[in-house]
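stage 2 :: seqdesign
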């Protein structure tokens, strides 16, 4: 009986494992119409799919029964069913069978228990004693990924009635197929080092006071660049007093002559060159050369490597290893013949650099004390760059590329997509796929807010994926293509579980053999059924499909689904981290940069992202930058345990042809001139390149530049501090958040933290107002207060005209040509006469005020903004409004694209010397979650292709509400009260 029990348990586990890990056909990429790409063969089936609700494990235990005074040994088979919040492993039901030896005897048990994350309580029935026993169990991984790195866990069991204590290990079954989906180490290992001892130089050569001035400037440049305005929060009296002390300290420093950020920056560079000149015996030319070399080494060896780790855990957090390497390189460079230094001068120069490195180390430690974490330490890029090295578009693009470790690419085109146009663009992208399409999105909703089937998700399944296969099959019958397209959806398990995606994704996974599902919405069920019937008839009537057989249909007429970052109990500290990436791309090949297309967005696939109440933005991109998205998708799958020979062929890295540069030149000649940089944040403890790009942009904006940052989650104290810094440097900083009723997230901790951040920004503008004005800057908080249809262009213009005389920032600083205002009035009059309500994708069941969800930012200097005064903008505005009106009616054509074609050469930035303009768009919020935890995508566009976005931002600024004090802020964004509000500060990394 005992052996039969064990055999039955083993066969059950084996059979269930085959169900959880079914074999699927290898993905074969389809060729393009004109130049079919060739991919290496897929040697193994693509292993990722939807995660199971059950987890099978096996293991061994050994211990001692103190009542029977005998040792015990067990072999166990265990099945855990995830019952509540399976993405967190919150509550599981477990069933277990064991084969046990107790002393000289043996027996078997079976039992059941309820499991919390690491604690299990239940019973086991002893087959030999024929009675049940209460059992308690503690299970967990003392090291990430398990002691052996294969998902193994330590287990300790206690049976009170027998007073038996057992310990051992349990491992996933089948153990050989375990795939780790998180990094083994949560931190970045930093090298330790030590600076050399001070070498006292000749006193006659240089006075120490010059290096002291360098050190003083470095200290205040850091403190002014990333001030922590709320070291103790802003919800208590103590916290607000600390905030006011910090604001007073900053104000007291910058109002002193020669102590603004710009003055400290200038002093640092001047005194550094002077110190090196004195060390070189008074030779100013050599001093300048040594200072330039020192800055270059600081930037390359210390500042950039460290700043690229912003948002990540570093151990150790200090710079000592980087500083030692920089010191050694600088010392070696002094021995080169071109240095023209004697031994004494070399020692003096080396000592100057050593003291700069010593101060840089103190700067990092000071920032750590200020933020109480190494994850938020950002070294000012100004230590390694002079202002004149990033004061043009080309220079700034080059520096940003160096900071993030990848340059801007040219030979691209971009166009901007507003609101629910994203859904239409996504559907068009799927239908236009020739070879492959990847939807990498945080939300493919299976159910709507009313808990019914989501109409948009199912509509995309029918009108997008099913229709794409129908068209492809018919094209194969006509001989226009040789294979079917491949589709892949990448979706994080958290959103997959939360939004009930299983049914619709299972439907997509089995399109070649599925039947129409039973849905609670009769109209939707009929629509889906009709799509399935059309697909089935097309397949049955297709000669191309008949020739390939049933197995081909099952393998290829499907959407491959990969649910990433599934729950793993050996990575408990990762369970709150999510992949928040939102993009799609198709037909990306290294050999043909013109073949593909991508969509960056802030939206997901679901009903609440469409209609008149969702304000968001997307960007459609074509060109050379797309290859980075293919690389990022490939890297994601590799982090999920996919082996190179298991990757779909279309995601494998291909060689760039010898004619690639010539192809790019041809594209640029044809007008593909957008400079684009796409960066990603990895999920969890991986690289945070998008966060680094934002910090670099905020750091490098110089006096007179505008920083406009609308966001649905303005909760980051770090970003708020950098916006205060920008205003103190003479920039015009405009954070914009939704009013309380316009916020997509209404959770009390979130609302409390956002109110706190907005209050701090608003109060900072008051306490530091004179210092900000003296620097020529502005700091104003804007609120999105729209109550009209977001797609109604007539209502948009009406709001703009209504607020024309309101307190709109920069109204008196940057003048708009009178003809532009006249065109706005004329267009409004014309639209009133011919007004037609927007055509929405679906009707909204529960109307509410529009929610501002967009995560786009805009940066421009004075030279670029002066273009607004040109008369040509009148014609641009007229065409822009017409394009938006056509889009809102669903009647847009190619000429209605909102892109570079709208902008005449007469207002081109490239024709305006010194003009700088950059826009960003993606999924990255202004919160700590996006900085630390979540996977994010962000794209930056520079130059003339940003100008169409400037129109959109101008409307956003012109229609926003700009409170001038805390009382006005509370009218639109009341401060939450109660315990949950106060919890926001302690949960800010998770909000």
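stage 2 :: out
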């Amino acid at each position: 009986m005992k052996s039969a029990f064990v055999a039955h348990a083993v066969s059950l586990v084996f059979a269930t494992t085959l169900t959880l890990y079914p074999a699927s056909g290898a993905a074969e990429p389809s060729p393009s119409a004109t130049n079919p790409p060739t991919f290496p063969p897929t040697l193994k089936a693509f292993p990722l799919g939807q995660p199971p609700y059950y987890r099978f494990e096996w293991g061994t235990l050994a211990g001692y029964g103190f009542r029977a005074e005998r040792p015990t040994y067990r072999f166990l088979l265990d099945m855990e069913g995830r019952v509540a919040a399976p993405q967190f492993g919150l509550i599981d039901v477990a069933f277990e069978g064991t084969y046990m030896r107790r002393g000289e005897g043996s027996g078997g048990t079976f039992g059941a228990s309820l499991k919390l994350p690491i604690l299990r309580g239940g019973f086991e029935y002893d087959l030999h004693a024929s009675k049940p026993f209460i059992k308690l169990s503690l299970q967990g991984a003392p090291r990430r990924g398990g002691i052996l790195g294969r998902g193994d866990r330590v287990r300790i069991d206690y049976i009170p009635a027998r007073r038996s204590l057992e310990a051992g290990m349990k491992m996933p079954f089948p153990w050989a197929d375990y795939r780790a989906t998180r990094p083994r180490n949560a931190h970045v290992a930093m090298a330790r080092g030590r600076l050399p001892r001070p070498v006292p130089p000749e006193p006659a050569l240089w006075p120490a006071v010059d290096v002291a001035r360098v050190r003083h400037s470095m200290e205040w440049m850091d403190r002014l660049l990333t001030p922590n305005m709320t070291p103790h929060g802003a919800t208590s009296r103590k916290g607000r007093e600390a905030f006011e002390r910090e604001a007073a300290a900053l104000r007291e420093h910058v109002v002193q002559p020669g102590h603004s950020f710009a003055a400290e920056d200038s002093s640092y560079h001047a005194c550094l060159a002077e110190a090196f000149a004195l060390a070189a015996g008074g030779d100013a030319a050599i001093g300048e050369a040594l200072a330039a070399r020192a800055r270059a080494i600081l930037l390359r060896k210390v500042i950039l490597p460290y700043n690229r780790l912003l948002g990540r855990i570093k151990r150790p957090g200090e710079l000592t290893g980087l500083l030692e390497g920089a010191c050694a390189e600088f010392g070696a460079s002094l021995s080169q013949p071109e240095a023209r230094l004697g031994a004494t001068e070399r020692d003096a120069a080396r000592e100057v650099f050593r003291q700069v490195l010593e101060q840089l180390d103190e700067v990092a430690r000071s920032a750590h004390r200020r933020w109480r974490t190494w994850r938020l330490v950002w070294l000012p890029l100004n230590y390694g760059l002079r202002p004149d090295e990033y004061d043009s578009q080309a220079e700034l693009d080059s520096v940003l590329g160096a900071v993030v470790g990848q340059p801007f690419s040219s030979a691209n085109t971009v166009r901007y997509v507003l609101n629910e146009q994203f859904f239409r663009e996504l559907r068009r992208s799927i239908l236009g796929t020739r070879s492959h399409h990847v939807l990498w999105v945080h939300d493919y909703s299976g159910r709507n807010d009313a808990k019914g089937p989501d109409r948009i998700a199912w509509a995309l399944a029918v009108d997008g994926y099913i229709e794409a296969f129908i068209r492809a099959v018919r094209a194969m019958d006509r001989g226009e293509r040789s294979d079917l397209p491949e589709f892949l959806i990448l979706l994080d398990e958290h959103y997959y579980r939360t939004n009930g995606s299983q049914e619709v994704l299972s439907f997509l996974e089995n399109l070649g053999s599925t039947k129409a599902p039973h849905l609670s919405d009769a109209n939707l069920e009929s629509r889906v059924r009709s799509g399935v019937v059309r697909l089935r008839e097309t397949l049955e009537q297709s000669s191309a499909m008949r020739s390939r057989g049933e197995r081909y249909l099952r393998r290829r007429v499907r959407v491959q689904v990969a649910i990433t970052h599934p729950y793993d109990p050996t990575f408990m500290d990762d369970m709150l981290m999510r992949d928040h990436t939102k993009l799609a791309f198709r037909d990306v090949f290294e050999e043909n940069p013109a073949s593909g297309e991508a969509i960056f967005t802030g939206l997901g696939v679901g009903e609440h992202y469409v209609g008149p109440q969702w304000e968001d933005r997307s960007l459609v991109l074509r060109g050379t930058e797309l290859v980075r998205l293919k690389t990022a998708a490939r890297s994601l799958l590799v982090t999920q345990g996919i082996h190179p020979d298991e990757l779909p062929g279309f995601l494998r890295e291909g060689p760039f042809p010898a004619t690639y540069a010539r192809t790019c030149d041809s594209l640029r000649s044809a007008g593909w001139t957008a400079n684009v940089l796409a960066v990603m944040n990895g999920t969890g403890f991986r690289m945070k390149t998008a966060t680094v790009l934002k910090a670099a942009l905020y750091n490098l904006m110089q006096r007179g530049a505008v920083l406009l940052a609308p966001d649905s989650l303005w909760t980051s104290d770090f970003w708020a501090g950098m916006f205060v810094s920008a205003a103190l440097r003479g920039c015009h900083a405009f954070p914009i958040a939704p009013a309380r009723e316009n916020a997509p997230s209404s959770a009390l901790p979130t609302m409390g933290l956002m109110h706190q951040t907005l209050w701090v920004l608003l109060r900072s503008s008051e306490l530091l107002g004179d210092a900000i004005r003296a620097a020529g800057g502005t700091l104003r908080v804007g609120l999105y207060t729209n109550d009209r249809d977001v797609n109604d262009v007539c209502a948009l213009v009406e709001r703009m005209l209504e607020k024309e005389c309101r307190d709109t920032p920069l109204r008196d600083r940057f003048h708009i040509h009178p003809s532009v205002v006249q065109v706005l009035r004329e267009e409004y009059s014309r639209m009133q006469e011919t007004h037609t309500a927007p055509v929405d994708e679906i009707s909204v069941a529960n109307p509410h005020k529009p929610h501002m969800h967009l995560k786009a930012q805009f940066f421009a200097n004075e030279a670029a903004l002066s273009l607004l005064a040109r008369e040509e903008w009148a014609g641009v505005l007229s065409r822009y409004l017409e394009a938006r009106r056509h889009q809102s009616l669903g009647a847009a054509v190619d000429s209605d694209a909102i892109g570079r074609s709208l902008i005449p050469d007469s207002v081109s930035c490239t024709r305006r010397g010194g003009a700088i303009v950059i826009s960003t768009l993606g999924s990255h919020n202004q919160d700590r979650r996006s900085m630390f935890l979540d996977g994010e995508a962000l794209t930056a566009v520079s130059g003339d292709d940003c100008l169409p976005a400037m129109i959109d931002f101008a409307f956003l600024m012109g229609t926003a509400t700009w409170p001038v004090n805390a009382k006005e802020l509370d009218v639109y964004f009341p401060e939450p009260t109660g315990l949950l509000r106060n919890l926001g500060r302690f949960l800010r990394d998770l909000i």
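stage 3 :: structure notes
- The chain has a mean pLDDT of 89.
- The CA atoms of residues 334 and 340 lie 8 Å apart.
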